[in-house]
């Protein structure tokens, strides 16, 4: 067995020590020390070469069997690519990866530290898995897993989940920051060496785990976020980091009794249940190439308690506070004695500032108890002075709105767009103008 050498590293500033410390002597943070293995690096004979002499290597992409997941990945998996798929327990990570294993062409090694072989077999039967090329290994010991990969030489590795696996080189328990990083690091090294793409499952809990996927982001190539409300059946996979493609791409799935199904027309899906009432505004969302029409809902009502509530689902609550402050200062729309709720219908989460204008409009609409025109979409970032700022992908958003029969678009003034797509384009330079015009 290799000699064990470890050190303790402050996860906040990188300060190193041979002993664990409760408080970092360098940055002063508490409880930031985590144990890490000291690796002996051998020198590689790589020499600097003029940039323009480097050739582009065309890597063959491997399909996952889900065309939208491939799009999110940037066109499929690249050899040696390590993909972290992070999400709350029960959201469908194992289900999706089992389906990917079934559809993948080539040998798949599915390592599960979460469930027993028979539990997974039951799920596989339910999903109608028929591939004979899936090898299942219930195991949590990293060194055993690595040996299995070396012996079996799979074309795809799945590790479910990274929190359940431990290396014998570390004393800390599975799921600790040190273990999770060590596991991700060693698996990544192995996959890169052998050109095997891999999916690592990362569990996130609402309370926030000690060793959540955050600590792995810089080790892996790609981070996919798996989202959705558990009581609804839609699921969203979003690329939040991608060395082999762009971020922001989204794939929408539906959870059925036979596993996950891709939803080809997410816009139709998300606006299907729209109700005509004040506080509802359609926002054409897009962080990637595929736009999705979403319904932003706001509810403003007399506060029940002395401290008014601000609650959001699918939208940043700090961003909401900012919008409320702007509405008060610039539009004289007071909500300080009101409870304010903002919800992205269908449970999708939106972190684009482009949603600001739709959120502001939805709040004003609810507060004034007036409907926003039914055939209108709105997008634009709202600044602190109430100014409406230009955002990306204007044309992509408008085209999608047009496709679904919307006739008016409220957009930032002076935005560069190629054409109006037969819609009435209403340009506004600040929120006040928007609210005066429409409500
Ligand atoms: P799972 O993939 O086990 O979630 P995770 O790995 O992210 O923890 O998904 C579990 C949920 O999905 C569970 O509540 C049951 C449901 N489910 C279905 O609705 N249909 C199916 O075909 C399967 C396999 C699971
Ligand atoms: Mg699972």
Notes on the structure:
The chain has 439 residues and is of the alpha/beta class. The protein has three domains: 2-41; 64-264, P-loop containing nucleotide triphosphate hydrolases (Rossmann fold, 3-Layer(aba) Sandwich); 268-438, Ribosomal Protein S5, domain 2 (2-Layer Sandwich), CATH 3.30.230. It has ten helices and 21 strands. The strands form five sheets. Strands 6-5-7-8-4-9-10-11-12 form a nine-stranded mixed β-sheet, with helices on both faces. It has a four-stranded mixed β-sheet with strand order 13-14-16-15. A three-stranded antiparallel β-sheet has the order 2-1-3. The radius of gyration is 25 Å and the shape is globular. The model has no long low-confidence stretch (mean pLDDT 91). The structure holds thymidine-5'-diphosphate and magnesium ion. Thymidine-5'-diphosphate binds at residues 87, 89-95, 123, 126-127, 255, 257-259.
Distance between the termini: 73 Å
Count of discrete domains: 3
CATH topology name of the largest domain, in short, is Rossmann fold
Q: Are there runs of 5+ residues with pLDDT below 50, and where?
A: none
CATH top level label of the largest domain: Alpha Beta
Radius of gyration, Cα only, in angstroms?
Answer: 25 Å
Strand content: 25-35%
The dominant shape is globular
User: Which sheet architecture does the biggest sheet show?
Assistant: 9 strands, mixed
Q: How many helical stretches? A: 10
Residue-averaged pLDDT: 91
């Amino acid at each position: 067995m290799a000699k064990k050498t470890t050190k303790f590293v402050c996860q906040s500033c990188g300060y190193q020590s041979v002993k664990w410390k409760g408080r970092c002597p360098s940055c002063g943070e508490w409880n930031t020390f985590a144990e890490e293995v000291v690796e002996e690096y051998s020198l590689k004979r790589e020499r600097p070469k003029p940039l323009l002499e480097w050739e582009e290597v065309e890597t063959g992409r491997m399909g996952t069997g889900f065309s939208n997941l491939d799009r999110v990945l940037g066109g499929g998996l690249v050899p040696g690519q390590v993909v972290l798929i992070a999400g709350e327990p029960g959201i469908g990570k194992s289900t999706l990866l089992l389906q990917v294993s079934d559809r993948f062409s080539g040998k798949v090694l599915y390592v599960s530290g979460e469930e027993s072989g028979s539990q997974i077999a039951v799920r596989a039967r339910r999903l109608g898995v028929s591939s004979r090329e899936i090898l299942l290994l219930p195991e949590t010991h990293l060194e055993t897993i690595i040996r299995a990969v070396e012996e079996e030489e799979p074309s795809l590795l799945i590790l479910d989940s990274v929190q359940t696996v431990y290396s014998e080189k570390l004393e800390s328990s599975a799921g600790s920051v040190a273990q999770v990083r060590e596991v991700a690091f060693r698996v990544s090294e192995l996959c890169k060496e052998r050109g095997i793409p891999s999916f690592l499952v990362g569990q996130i809990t609402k309370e926030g785990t000690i060793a959540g996927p955050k600590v792995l982001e810089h080790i892996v190539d790609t981070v996919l976020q798996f989202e959705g409300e558990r009581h609804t059946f839609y699921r969203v996979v979003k690329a939040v980091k991608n060395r082999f493609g762009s971020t922001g791409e989204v794939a929408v799935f539906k959870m059925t009794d036979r596993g996950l199904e891709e939803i080809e027309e997410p816009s139709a899906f998300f606006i299907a249940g729209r109700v005509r009432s004040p506080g509802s505004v359609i926002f054409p969302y897009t962080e990637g190439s595929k736009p999705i029409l979403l319904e932003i809902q706001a509810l403003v009502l007399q506060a029940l308690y002395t401290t008014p509530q601000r609650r959001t689902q699918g939208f940043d609550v700090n961003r909401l506070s900012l919008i409320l402050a702007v509405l008060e200062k610039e539009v004289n729309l007071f909500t300080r004695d009101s409870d304010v709720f903002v919800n992205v219908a269908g449970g999708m989460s939106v972190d684009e500032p482009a949603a600001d204008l739709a959120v502001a409009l939805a709040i004003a609409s609810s507060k004034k108890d007036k409907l926003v025109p039914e055939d209108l979409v709105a997008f634009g970032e709202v600044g602190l002075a109430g100014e409406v700022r230009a955002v990306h992908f204007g044309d992509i958003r408008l085209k999608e709105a047009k496709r679904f029969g919307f006739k008016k678009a409220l957009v930032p003034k002076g935005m560069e767009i190629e054409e109006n797509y037969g819609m009435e384009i209403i340009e506004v330079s600040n929120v006040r103008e928007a609210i005066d015009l429409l409500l």
